[in-house]
Specification:
Elements lengths: L1 H10 L1 H21 L3 H24 L2 H5 L6 H34 L4 H29 L5 H20 L9 H31 L4
Helix pairs in contact: 1-2, 2-3, 3-5, 3-6, 5-6, 5-8, 6-7, 6-8
Length: 209
């Protein structure tokens, strides 16, 4: 399984270098603007895209058909994708927290709740997109899942814009519920991620190559 993860990392090494440059540019932009929230959000979306790129490389090189001739269980292949996704989500959260801390340090002082919120936000955005897209990719492939990708990445933006045009009103919640809401969302996302994994395994095990 670790060999499968290493394969993806080696295949994407040029892409990851480019991604590192992009993250560096975003950090400079955040420092210049004194704002890190959008940088953390973009980083979270990029972490989801990295894992999808791994599927795309395998599809373009027809690795699936070759890999099934090796002593590798299909469940292991999917598990490697999900473990690699978790790795990038963790890196995205740490990067978002680091960027937020750096921007606030330049501005004057660090607000640790904001830093923690940036990391938590990264952990919510990337896994949500990946959990939805992974079963679609396992079933239809990357090329035929482009519509689903567009919906996953554009629908939240559209809903936020619509909400803002309606006045951006937030329903009043009790302080205890408001404080627990991010952790409840994280728990729900964990359940969705696990469900997505088992669904992807079920789809992939029935797939013909």
């Amino acid at each position: 399984m670790w060999g499968l993860m290493l394969k993806d990392l080696l295949n994407m090494r040029k892409y990851l270098k480019t991604l590192g440059v992009i993250v560096g540019v975003m950090l400079v932009m955040g420092l210049c603007m004194g704002e890190a929230s959008f940088v953390a959000g973009i980083g979270a979306m990029l972490s989801a895209m990295v894992t999808i790129v791994g599927f795309s490389y395998d599809e373009n090189s027809h690795w699936d058909a070759y890999g099934m001739t090796l002593p590798i269980a299909r469940k292991q292949y999917i598990a490697a994708k999900y473990l690699l996704a978790l790795l990038f989500f963790a890196l995205s959260a740490l990067t978002g927290m680091g960027m937020t801390a750096a921007v606030q340090l330049v501005s004057g002082s660090i607000s640790w709740p904001d830093v923690l919120g940036a990391g938590l936000g990264s952990l919510l955005v990337g896994p949500l997109a990946f959990s939805i897209l992974s079963p679609c990719i396992c079933r239809f492939g990357v090329e035929r899942s482009r519509l689903a990708m567009m919906m996953v990445f554009l629908l939240p933006t559209g809903l936020i814009m619509l909400w803002a045009r309606q006045g951006g009103k937030v329903p009043s919640l009790s302080p205890d519920l408001l404080q627990a809401l991010p952790w409840l969302a994280l728990l729900a996302l964990l359940v969705l991620f696990v469900f997505s994994y088992f669904l992807s395994v079920k789809i992939y095990e029935k797939k013909d190559f």
